[in-house]
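Q: Could you fold this chain for me?
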Amino acid sequence: MPIVVFNQKGGVGKSTITCNLAAISASQGLRTLVIDLDPQGNSSSYLLGNSARDEQPTAAGFFEHTLSYSFKSIPPTDFIVATPFDHLHVMPASAALNELQVKLESRQKIYKLREALKQLANSYERIYIDTAPALNFFTRAALIGASGCLIPFDCDSFSRQALYALMDNVQEIRADHNPDLQIEGIVVNQFQPRANLPQRMVAELIAEGLPVLQPYLPASVKIRESHELCLPMVYLDPKHKITLALIALHDGLRS
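A: Sure. Below is the predicted structure, expressed as structure tokens.
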């Protein structure tokens, strides 16, 4: 079941949530893939460390191949690399994704990722897709091809304002392109239980009937250490409170 992690607001923890959920899947023995469609490449760096800068297959290479008139069909698995972690692979991002958008849109290649995801389902039991903080070509392609969408929410008023438009956009894509797409839920990130504003905001979302997931992910400086060391939390500190919250979140998602 491909899951897209998406929010049009930056800095809400998309890459952190994507990589940590994927690492948990892999640590449970599931064949797991992360597709990084954010040109910033934070998920790629998180999972590959310094080797993310190396010359290697990328998501840009996959999309560029869809523009080719070559009769040689290259399987999407050829654009995937192994991470240092068992059962965990990544299709890395590249800054070249930015340059490809106009060409891909003009050539109507929006469904090519969906076709690739169907093929990749034969090789992977879990697929997570990280996206840029924008409803661009790649984000739309991911939502068209995915089964679920997770929405990180960081208890900020700007994030809340963006939330409603985001959910409308997802529902529009579901109606027009992908009836199987479901909003898996809103992931409350960097939650501070003793602060009034986060508690009030989350309570209001729940009162509105929005699909707020439990547990909330606590704010923790340990995440920054995890980023610096390129070690998802399940490998860095499996008993830490945020690791346990991530595991509970992971295990509560649809299989």
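A (continued): Residues 233 and 240 are 8 Å apart (CA to CA).
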